[in-house]
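Reopening this ticket.

The earlier resolution said the output was attached, but the attachment link was broken on my side. Pasting everything inline this time so it's all in one place.
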Amino acid sequence: DPMKFAQIIGFETERLEGMQQVLREAGQRRAGRTGGPTHRMLLKDRDKPNHYLAVIEFESYDEAMRNSDDPETSKLAEQLGALSIGERVYINCDVLESGELK
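Inline output:
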């Protein structure tokens, strides 16, 4: 079985609601299509105002790379970039363990 893959994206914005709207619309366009992310989580940094982390999980690294090559993904990145302050930080991770504890 391929190992699951997650990308963590750190970003700053003063326009979080706009970003969430863009992400919802992208999710609706993706509904029913195979591939793409399987899970996402949005975290707000309590210690740094306007700083957030998005964690996006895929079935595999290869699936994430296929998703990155999708023109829809480039369009989404461009829209989110326009709502961000400064550069985004990307961290690529292999998922060793994941599960609900409660």
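Reporter confirms the inline version is readable. The helical segments are 16-30, 61-69, 71-82. The two ends are 26 Å apart (CA to CA).
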